[in-house]
């Protein structure tokens, strides 16, 4: 960064923290090929599983009740959210080879739910996470196109490859693909789906399936469902750079978000696409209160409820790959070595394989240095993993405006810590402050999800 660029960046309203991360000009603060729009789009992510949403408060909804989905989507639409997301889980999660009792409910089928939600809403996008490993491309493309048609062009597909073996045991094909093969397979899968949506005649012979057919449904108002990609590895990023409209990243911290934007921009340019044609929406959690002090107290309360002693031990067991139930959650991190070969995972993102040894050593040192117990450590790590925005309404609004002006992200995919009421304060207090700062839409830009994400027509 040259000092001459500082005044220009300061003029664009960036905070000192954001300006310090900028390396370019006011037009291109992060990468010379990427011009920020300065606008944010929000998505609401109904996770169903994971400890990020608290299900044991009296005000918590039911994980599978229609009322939970309907009331959350209505609030999101009131807040002009671009999208409503559902994850996918095709079998109860496993933890150390048995069903994970802390993920008490499974996830209902996303396409069925979104079809019902299409009738209960007018503008919000409806995004289904669906994996490419166990579906068949034409069948899935056809069902997603149906959702796109009946919702008036509001459908999205969050493309995942599924990173666990137990899901595969649930399918006739069985097994599961290794990491590199999963993305090769995904690429061929999406190509066939795209041909279907273009109404072309399809003749595909691949390693996993053969298809002879042709598109049999008309194009929707937005042409085809918007393609989201959730996978953060280099192979996942390359795949996204070639195919996705939106990347759903796990990088919520400002610095990590800036690095991710650079990495994606380079890959998108290398793939011969305009960087503006790929939006980045990190997953995030937002905890708000009227004042900083109240917000701090609320964060502690939320964390205590999200990560209790059992969750803390389970988190460590993912990385240690062994039974740690004999350790005191109030005591220091386990002084035993991880079982590297057993370092399986309850949740995909934690998979560490051979790195477990290095990671557990670093964690032990970090917790000892900070004087943290297992419980305190797990609470801090869970928060950090979520890309959390906490503070007063004004502080968080200002921080998000920074992200928007810097062009680090194009929005957030927000997982509410409480359902159904967890978006209320975001919609009532944060959204108006973002609108005042000119970084969030006052109204839906159009009728389709593509338009509301600021994507060019196909
Ligand atoms: C933000 C995010 C959300 C995801 N949601 C799901 C999901 O709902 N269901 C699922 O099976 N996998 C999900 N995945 C995991 C994907 O299956 C993905 O293939 C996995 O992260 C491995 O890809 P990677 O190594 O490129 O990160 C998600 C991943 C990310 C990063």
Attribute tags:
ten-stranded parallel sheet, 458 residues, 40% helix, binds flavin mononucleotide, 13% strand, alpha/beta, Alkanesulfonate monooxygenase SsuD/methylene tetrahydromethanopterin reductase-like flavin-dependent oxidoreductase (Luciferase family), 14 strands
- What's the helix-strand series? HHEHEEEHEHEHHEEEHEHEEHHHHEHEHH
Q: Give the overall average pLDDT.
A: 88
> Care to count the β-strands?
14
Please indicate the percent range of residues in DSSP E strands (runs of 2 or more).
5-15%
**Bound ligands:** flavin mononucleotide
Low-confidence stretches: 1-7, 345-351
Quote the distance from N terminus to C terminus: 36 Å
Largest sheet: 10 strands, parallel
H/I helix tally: 16
* Secondary-structure content class: alpha/beta
Pfam families: Bac_luciferase (PF00296)
Keywords: Flavoprotein, FMN, Monooxygenase, Oxidoreductase
Family: Belongs to the NtaA/SnaA/DszA monooxygenase family.
Protein name: Alkanesulfonate monooxygenase SsuD/methylene tetrahydromethanopterin reductase-like flavin-dependent oxidoreductase (Luciferase family)
Describe this structure in words.
By secondary structure, the protein is an alpha/beta fold. The protein has 16 helices and 14 strands. The chain has helices at residues 6-11, 16-21, 66-78, 110-120, 137-150, 165-168, 179-197, 234-243, 254-270, 292-306, 309-320, 356-370, 374-385, 393-406, 424-436, 449-452, and strands spanning 41-46, 83-86, 94-95, 98-99, 125-131, 155-160, 201-205, 210-214, 226-229, 246-247, 279-280, 283-289, 388-392, 411-414. The strands form 3 sheets. It has a 10-stranded parallel β-sheet. Strands 3-4 form a two-stranded antiparallel sheet. Helix 5 (137-150) packs across helix 7 and helix 8 packs across helix 9. The longest helix is centred in the middle third of the chain and has 19 residues, at 179-197. It is globular, with a radius of gyration of 22 Å. Mean pLDDT is 88; it is low at 1-7 and 345-351.
């Amino acid at each position: 960064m040259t000092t001459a660029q500082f005044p220009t960046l300061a003029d664009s309203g960036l905070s000192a923290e954001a300006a310090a991360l900028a390396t370019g000009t006011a037009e291109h603060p992060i990468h010379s090929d990427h011009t920020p729009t300065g606008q944010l789009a929000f998505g609401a992510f109904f996770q169903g599983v994971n400890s990020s949403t608290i299900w044991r408060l009296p005000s918590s909804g039911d994980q599978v009740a229609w009322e939970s989905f309907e009331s959350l989507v209505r609030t999101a639409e009131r807040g002009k959210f671009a999208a409503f997301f559902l994850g996918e889980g095709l079998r109860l999660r496993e933890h150390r080879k048995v069903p994970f009792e802390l993920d008490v409910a499974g996830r209902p089928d996303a396409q069925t739910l979104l079809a019902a939600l299409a009738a209960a809403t007018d503008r919000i996008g409806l995004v289904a996470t669906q994996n490419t490993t166990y579906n068949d491309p034409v069948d899935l493309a056809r069902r997603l196109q149906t959702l796109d048609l009946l919702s008036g062009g509001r459908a999205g597909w969050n493309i995942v490859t599924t990173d666990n073996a137990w899901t595969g045991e649930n399918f006739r094909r069985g097994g599961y693909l290794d990491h590199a093969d999963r993305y090769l397979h995904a690429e061929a899968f999406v190509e066939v789906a795209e041909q279907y949506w273009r109404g072309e005649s399809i003749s595909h012979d691949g390693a996993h399936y053969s298809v002879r057919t042709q598109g049999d449904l008309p194009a929707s108002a937005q042409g085809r469902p918007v393609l989201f990609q959730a996978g953060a590895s280099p192979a996942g990023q390359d795949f996204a750079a070639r195919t996705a409209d939106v990347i759903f990243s796990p990088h919520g911290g400002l610095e990590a978000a800036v690095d991710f934007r650079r990495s994606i921009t380079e890959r998108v340019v290398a793939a011969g696409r305009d960087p503006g044609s790929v939006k980045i929406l990190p997953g995030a959690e937002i905890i708000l209160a009227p004042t900083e002090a109240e917000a701090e107290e609320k964060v502690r309360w939320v964390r205590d409820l999200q990560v209790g002693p059992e969750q803390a031990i389970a988190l460590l067991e993912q990385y240690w790959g062994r039974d740690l139930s004999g350790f005191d959650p109030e005591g220091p991190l386990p002084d035993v070595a991880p079982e590297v070969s057993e370092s399986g995972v309850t949740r995909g993102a934690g998979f560490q394989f051979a790195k477990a040894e290095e990671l557990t050593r670093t964690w032990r040192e970090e917790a000892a240095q900070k004087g943290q117990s297992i419980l305190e450590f797990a609470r801090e790590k869970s928060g950090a993993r979520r890309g959390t925005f906490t503070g007063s309404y004004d502080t968080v609004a200002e921080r998000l405006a920074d992200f928007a002006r810097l062009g680090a992200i194009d929005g957030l995919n927000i997982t509410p810590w409480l359902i159904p009421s967890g978006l209320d304060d975001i919609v009532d207090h944060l959204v108006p402050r973002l609108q005042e700062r000119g970084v969030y839409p006052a109204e839906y830009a159009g009728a389709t999800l593509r338009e509301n994400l600021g994507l060019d027509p196909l």
